[in-house]
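Section 3.1: Structural characterization of target chains.
Under the original work plan, the team committed to producing a structural model for every single-chain target entering the pipeline before any wet-lab resources were allocated. The record below documents one such target. The sequence was received from the expression subgroup and is listed exactly as submitted; it comprises 69 residues.
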Amino acid sequence: MSVAELVRAGTIEYIEFPPQLVGKYQSFTQADLSALRAAGYRAPMTTVEHGVAAYVERLMAGGAAAAVT
């Protein structure tokens, strides 16, 4: 199941960023990959959407121990 399907099924709930944390917590980050690329790493990066979906799938397949990989 995809994350969107899990939300539609009610398995997980998406929670909006709490307004009381605006300005107190960094809600968006973007790494500077220039040093990594300069070192020769050329593989594409996993998107947040794909990474979260894969994480949820591992959790569902094998519990919390599967997430520590």
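Residues 48-62 form the longest helix (15 residues).
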